[in-house]
Amino acid sequence: MTRFFMDYCSLSGNMTIDLVRGEVETEDSECEDWIVHLKNTGQETNTGGRVKRLQPWLSDETFMLTYGDGVCNVNLRDLLDFHRAHGRIATVTAVRPPARFGGLNFDGDLVAEFTEKPQIGEGWINGGFLVFEPKVFDYFEGDDSSLEADALERLAADRQLVAYRHDDFWQCMDTLRDKRLLETLWHEGRAPWKVWD
Predict the structure, then answer these.
(1) Whole-number Å distance between alpha carbons of 194 and 85
(2) Hey, which bits of the chain come out as E strands?
(3) What does the pLDDT look like over 30-72, one tens digit per residue?
(4) Helices (H), the chain
């Protein structure tokens, strides 16, 4: 991750590499006007502990968090507005993942219809796009804390967790199959999560 951001600008746009002199000249490099902070939370730190370690940088205002292993086309402004309108400590984006396999509809013993990978009915899950108020830090004990099992479950029990239902595109990238699907959508220009050119 660190190397990606360190090399980001130098690897975007066109470049000329002088192999004899070892010089690289970049041109037409388009870099976003971002400041990126990478905080090393340690390999042994659990998900909640990682968030807790960010408290010195995030303790003054509402902040957003994502796991980074899924993509969707959730409108982040709408998500934030929803969170603020409910006045709770935390908001999770609820999604209904696509079914992994196609389905069969029957007419007696006959197959009446084959459905191609429908979206799961009422099976809402945490889509991994969350909004928190600084009070969330009270729900983490230390490095062993789990964001899901410790914080989110306690927030729900305290009636401090609301769900923003996102009915549109969401896809995780947990398997090679998921990766290939997302790459195909990207290369074919059909990536619903792409919001700028």
Answers:
(1) 27
(2) 14-18, 23-27, 63-66, 70-72, 90-95, 103-107, 110-115, 125-132, 161-166, 170-172
(3) 777 888 888 889 899 999 999 999 999 987 999 999 988 889 9
(4) 2-7, 47-53, 55-58, 76-86, 153-157, 176-187
Q: What's the rounded Cα separation, in Å, for the pair 177 and 134?
A: 37
Cα 44–chain centre separation: 21
SS3 label, residue 107: strand
* Burial zone of 184 (CB within 10 Å; 0-12 exposed, 13-18 middle, 19+ buried): exposed
Which element (helix H / strand E) includes 175? none
Copy the structure tokens of residue 88: 């709770």
Cα separation of 147 and 155, whole Å? 10
- Asked whether the beta carbons of 123 and 170 are under 8 A apart, the reply is no
* 18-35 pLDDT tens trace: 899 988 887 777 777 888
What gap in Å lies between CA 120 and CA 102, rounded to an integer? 11
Report residue 14 CA to chain centroid gap. Answer: 30
pTM, two decimals, is: 0.78
